[in-house]
């Protein structure tokens, strides 16, 4: 697995359970996953030598992020390395422009969009799509980075900076959505697919803060449509492994926002809330093992991310959180605490959505140091 | 953690979740747990230098087996190492004679018993306790080793061999039991305790084969009595961490058979069937973190051990097992397959006990190579 973040860290137990040897390519020895994976190669994800060392003897190479450039993927593939997902599929998670064109071509509902190559095109693009406009870099954005809302034709500062740095940009109509949803589908090389229930995600400043599984009070037709879209996109893009489709729910149904081809923050709930968690499911898919059941194990599961606060020590807060609620599941990522950084998450499983939200939010806020009682 | 077996292997994910650094003392680099724990010290569990290296800088030393001699435990304790459970408690899991005396002194129901120091005492001991007699070595037995049933006074071969080798022996009345039960209780240094539901264990040739959680159709009074005994023993022996109490259920109630002070085969079901699994619970207890809920997450959970067969490869069978039942949870231990060796286990969670037993047994038997369809 390329990448040493928390997604790789949480994949390690699944590999151990399945008796599968897991080798990691991590940038540093103290990366989140490198702390818990014995067979770790150190190197950058765009370093051909490091990638070759990772791949040597591996049956399959997969990813915990999208940062391996296409040139390096091509080199690996040419050397006979089995990449899952493959380079062609992965390109759609790396390049939002390509993704938008492809999804539109498939007839998948997406926001109105247009490439934005020059600053002088901004007024016309905004007038065509409507103001405000969402402008994104097509590559490299995550957790709210690389996305900005442009209020009118005079609001050019961020866009001008990106264009000056040579970034390729995409403009989209601002979707006045009710809420955000996500669907995960696992697909194996032999074409077996398993789709998880539709979840609701709550983003703050572009960072995923909360996930409710399944999405509360979701109309069954909308749920089936969302799952159908995820299955359609997964098959059309020949995506092997997990595909996460992030969507906006509007009055008219759903509109696809982003794609990720790996385990994803919106699936952490599955560790306790589904029969097969997303990390084991991803490994089963890329190894062409039969997929596990994505069924929920309880009526409701709520996951809340723990963002770093000012206090570098999480352990004292952990004592309080575990004492207050013996059913809260705490996952810490072994990452140095920095304000706003994702350093862990908490999950609570049960029957009553409002109760679960209150408990999970309290635990996460306490760990973050936002509250002290 | 001292020991590199599957219990330590399955403890690693819990340590990672809690953000706790886990160092291991394993005998070999390819031991089950050493494959998945980065910070592994190689050495024997009775080697003072290896134990000292393990303990250096650790807040707590705990165990995945009972094989650290008391002399070495005393040396560690004298050097200020925090042992949990402590040496005095652990002695009762190491020495069945001491355990029997102590439990009898506490008024805990145990089988009739007597030390057996000389072969010429066998007839009198057997006549006093009744034939057949169960004879055990007080130390070092596990998975049926170190236990024999002696039919009559002439049946001396095994016992004579043990006595000749210098082993200390214990004779016990043969309990004509209906079934075997086990109870796990976690206890922290500050005295908090959490007791798991009573489970039924099915042993074949002294090796645990199946566990049903909770024990089906168990009278509530018997269940409460069994849990009460486990809590009593845990507190009386000042056992910190998990204590597993194995019992016989007879017509008159329960009789305590064995004690283990660590995660235990009878608790593997909790990985999927309880809110807090036994491995996380043990770590929380020995670290004096608040304990988690031991509540079951479903009406029934069935665990069946996978014993090695003649085929060294488990992976082809894994394909079939996962394809046949998308809800089966397979745990492989990364151990070389040898006939009769515990190489993994499977767990199924649901509503209908008989259905779960059939499915889990099929998966385990198929992985073992005992069946091929």
Oligomer: homodimer
* H-E order of chain A: HEEHHHHEHEEHEEEEEHEEHHEHEEH
User: What number of structural domains do the residues of chain A give?
Assistant: 3
**Of all protein chain pairs, which has the greatest interface, and how many residues does each chain bring to it?**
A-B, 42 and 41 residues
CATH class assignment of the largest domain in chain A: Alpha Beta
The total of helices of chain A stands at: 12
User: Remind me, CATH topology of the largest domain in chain A?
Assistant: D-amino Acid Aminotransferase, Chain A, domain 1
- What is the average of the pLDDT values of chain A? 96
How big is the Rg of chain A? 20 Å
Structural class of chain A: alpha+beta
Biggest beta sheet attributes of chain A: 9 strands, antiparallel
Describe the structure.
2 copies of one chain form a homodimer. Chain A is built from 12 helices and 15 strands. Chain A is α+β, with helices and mostly antiparallel strands and 373 residues long. Chain A has 3 domains: 6-83, Rossmann fold, CATH 3.40.50.20; 112-173, Dna Ligase, domain 1; 179-368, D-amino Acid Aminotransferase, Chain A, domain 1, CATH 3.30.470. The longest helix of chain A has 17 residues, at 220-236. In chain A, 50% of the residues are buried. The mean pLDDT of chain A is 96. Chain A binds chain B through residues 9, 12-13, 16-19, 21, 34-38, 40, 194, 275-276, 284, 289-293, 295, 297-298, 314-315, 318-319, 322-323, 326-327, 329-334, 344, 349, and chain B through 9, 12-13, 16-19, 34-38, 40, 194, 275-276, 284, 289-293, 295, 297-298, 314-315, 318-319, 322-323, 326-327, 329-334, 344, 349.
């Amino acid at each position: 697995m390329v990448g040493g973040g928390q997604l790789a860290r949480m994949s390690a137990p699944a590999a151990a359970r399945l008796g599968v040897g897991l080798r990691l390519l991590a940038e540093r020895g103290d990366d989140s996953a490198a702390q818990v994976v014995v067979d770790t190669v150190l190197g950058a994800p765009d370093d051909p030598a490091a990638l070759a060392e990772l791949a040597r003897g591996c049956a399959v190479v997969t990813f915990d992020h999208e940062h391996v450039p296409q040139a390096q993927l091509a080199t690996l593939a040419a050397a006979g390395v089995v990449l899952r997902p493959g380079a062609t599929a992965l390109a759609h998670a790396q390049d939002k422009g390509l993704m938008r064109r492809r999804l539109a071509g498939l007839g998948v509902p997406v926001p109105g969009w247009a490439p934005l190559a020059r600053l002088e095109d901004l007024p016309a693009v905004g007038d065509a799509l409507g103001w405000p406009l969402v402008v994104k870099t097509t590559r490299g954005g995550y957790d709210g980075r690389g996305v900005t809302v442009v209020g009118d034709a005079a609001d050019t500062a961020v866009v001008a900076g990106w264009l000056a740095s040579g970034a390729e940009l995409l403009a989209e109509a601002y979707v006045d959505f009710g809420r955000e949803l996500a669907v995960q589908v696992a697909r194996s090389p032999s074409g077996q697919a398993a789709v998880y229930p539709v979840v609701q995600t709550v983003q703050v400043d572009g960072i995923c803060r909360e996930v409710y599984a399944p999405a509360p009070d979701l109309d069954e037709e909308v749920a089936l449509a969302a799952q159908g879209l995820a299955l359609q996109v997964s098959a059309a893009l020949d995506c092997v492994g997990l595909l996460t489709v992030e969507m906006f729910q509007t009055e008219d149904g759903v509109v696809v926002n982003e794609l990720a081809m790996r385990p994803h923050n919106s699936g952490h709930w599955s560790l306790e809330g589904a029969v097969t968690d997303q990390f084991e499911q991803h490994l089963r898919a890329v190894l062409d093992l039969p997929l596990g059941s994505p069924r929920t194990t309880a009526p409701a599961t709520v996951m809340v991310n723990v963002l770093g606060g000012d206090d570098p020590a999480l352990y004292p807060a952990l004592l309080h959180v575990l004492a207050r609620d013996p059913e809260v599941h705490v996952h810490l990522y072994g990452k140095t605490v920095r304000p706003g950084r994702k350093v862990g998450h908490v999950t609570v499983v049960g029957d009553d959505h409002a109760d679960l939200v209150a408990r999970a939010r309290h635990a996460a806020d306490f760990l973050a140091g936002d509250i002290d009682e």
